[in-house]
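Reminder to self: tokens first, then the designed residues, so the page reads top to bottom the way the pipeline ran.
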């Protein structure tokens, strides 16, 4: 039997990588009067559903997808949440 899972994937730049988009957003917020914003980092959020025989296989496949395509492991970190949903 297979189960359906919802994966919520969060991809962010590694702390050592410069984030020009984050710097631009921070500058814009400061110009709007939001002087309390200390730092902005921009990332990606991805949702996908996957069908797998068990949670371990789903996690293994999602981890592989993230490493091979959804994130650039050289400059990005990723994490994901996995939720069992009705098939």
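Designed residues (87 positions):
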């Amino acid at each position: 039997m297979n189960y359906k899972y919802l994966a919520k994937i969060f991809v962010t730049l590694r702390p050592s990588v410069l984030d020009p988009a984050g710097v631009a957003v921070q500058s814009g917020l400061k110009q709007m009067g939001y002087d309390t914003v200390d730092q902005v980092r921009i990332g990606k959020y991805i949702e996908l559903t996957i069908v797998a025989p068990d949670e371990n296989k789903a996690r293994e496949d999602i981890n592989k997808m993230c490493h091979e395509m959804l994130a650039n492991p050289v400059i990005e970190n990723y994490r994901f949440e996995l939720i069992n949903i009705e098939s």
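The chain is about 30% helix and 35% strand.
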